[in-house]
Design a protein that fits this description.
This protein has 5 helices and 9 strands. The chain is of the alpha+beta class. Among the domains are: 126 residues; 34 residues, no CATH class. The strands form 3 sheets. The chain has a 5-stranded antiparallel β-sheet with strand order 1-4-5-8-9, with helices on one face. The radius of gyration is 24 Å and the shape is extended.
Amino acid sequence: MAYVQCSMNNKVGSMALSEPVKREAMHTRRIEIQGFLREDGLLDVDARLVDTKPYSFANDDSGEIPAGRPLHEMLVRMTVDEKLVITACEAVTLHSPYAECGGGADNMGVLVGLALKAGFIKAANERLRGALGCTHIREMLQQIATVAHQTMWPVRERARARRLAEEQRQDPRRIVRAEPGEDDGSIRLLNTCFAYASTGAVVRKRWPHLATPPAPAVLAPQPVAADEVS
């Protein structure tokens, strides 16, 4: 399960954000995304977005949206195959400021056939651009894709472990090991973020064959005295 939620006061161990100034809560957005392995081998990724406000306010359609009642609530289910190609996608709007908003969820099927790889968001936004889709559902697509990859990772690792175990069973005298980088996604992760920098400690420990030496430090230019300029 993956959670994406903005919070200004969450603590991680002994670390925390700075103490905020006195303030008033105005809006909360919660996004919950879960990845599932289906019995037919496909993956489902279910996403839910909820926007709420801690005060009541006027609304043209309903007259008023009470405090705490969702302003937006959208559900999305994306199904992908073992290659992370979308085979089905559906969405529904449970709460929205306007009755017509629900129509923006009806077109999610146009994503079928797209692969969750580089360029996916651009392609998805093209198919669901503007009035063809829903702004808030489009905003979830990047996180849905990320959770699909995180869900597929252990599925592939289990398959690799089963394959290695079977090879070991067939030849007990042979020590079977996976080749460095084989099916482990290391190449795809390398240099995609600070922690996976090829010069960092994580890569040196997990994938030493991909590690590179740190770049030499660049010394800042020293100030030149005025009498040295003339």
